[in-house]
Design goal:
The complex is a heterodimer of chains A (123) and B (136).
Chain A: E1 3-5, E2 8-9, E3 27-32, E4 38-43, E5 45-52, E6 55-60, E7 70-76, E8 82-85, E9 96-102, E10 114-119
Chain B: E1 8-10, E2 19-21, E3 28-30, H1 31-34, E4 38-43, E5 49-54, E6 56-61, E7 66-71, E8 82-89, E9 92-93, E10 95-98, E11 108-114, E12 126-132
Antiparallel strand pairs in B: 2-3, 4-5, 4-12, 6-7, 7-11, 8-9, 8-12, 10-11
Classes of the chains: A mainly beta (123), B mainly beta (136).
């Protein structure tokens, strides 16, 4: 088996390289949304801002090229929590996404595990 | 277009870190951290079955609407990875939620599935998950 060692890969033109059969996530975060918000682990997430109960802002270290990136999420079962983009408070921007954790009844509430993953094009 | 054919990519400074340039050419992203480390598509009704998967060794049925996906290669820690997914229960789009009753482990993902707007768990005809984070 051959091994190619490199620290950075670019296309010959200096741009993004095509990786066959895969498209990597550009950001993800696992945080505790109760009490003082704490990030357990993340990629391309500079901070999580606690806006109000169950409402947070995920701020990105490197911005997106446009606002049409995708967001998937999950929550925890202790109170039937799910997670979503909080588009009632504001649309996603290239540098941040307003997110929320809600109960099955649709009420915003702080969740001990908030999990978000984003795919799309970086700036 | 130039093309490199190889079976394995390794960072020279740090084996597990390779940066790739973003689509807009102004930023870089960590290739390894961006890759999904596991995914699974299951039929969670009746005798549960895996349709297709990556880095999944088995799936366990823990009762109505509760499943455990065991990983072939474990994550680095028990609770610092993410997973998300899609659920369809009884013809309706539902949602899934991780089981946080002290069951987050580095070697498995346990979650419940719910019908749309429901507070009670339900078996899912389709439950898909993808896992992101750091491998052990």
């Amino acid at each position: 088996m051959s091994t190619l060692k490199a620290d950075t890969i670019q296309s010959t033109g200096g741009g993004a390289v095509t990786l066959t059969k895969q498209s990597a996530a550009k950001a993800w975060v696992n945080f505790n949304g109760t009490g003082t918000v704490a990030i357990r682990n993340s990629l391309n997430t500079s901070t999580i801002t606690d806006r109000t109960t169950g409402s947070y802002t995920q701020n990105y270290s490197s911005s997106w090229s446009a606002v049409d990136y995708t967001v998937t999420a999950s929550g925890t079962s202790s109170a039937n929590y799910s997670s979503a983009v909080d588009d009632t408070d504001g649309a996603p921007t290239t540098s941040a996404t307003l997110i929320q954790t809600v109960t099955a009844a649709g009420t915003e509430n702080d969740s001990p595990y908030a999990l978000f993953v984003e795919h799309g094009d970086l700036a | 277009m130039s093309e490199i054919k190889t079976d394995k990519l390794t960072g020279t400074s740090t084996a597990g870190v390779i940066l790739v340039t973003g689509e807009g050419n102004s930023t870089t992203t960590n290739l390894q951290q961006g890759l999904a480390k596991a995914w699974n598509n299951i039929n969670g009704t009746g005798t549960i079955a895996i349709r297709d998967s990556f880095n999944i060794s088995s799936i366990a049925d823990n009762g109505t609407g509760v499943y455990t996906h065991s990983l072939s290669n474990s994550m680095s820690t028990s609770d610092s990875f993410t997973f998300s997914g899609f659920v369809r229960c009884s013809g309706n789009v539902g949602y899934l939620a991780g089981d946080d009753d002290n069951t987050f482990t580095s070697s498995s993902v346990k979650h419940a599935t719910y019908g749309s707007g429901a507070t009670n768990v339900a078996d899912a005809l389709y439950a898909t998950i993808d896992v992101h984070g750091d491998l052990a």
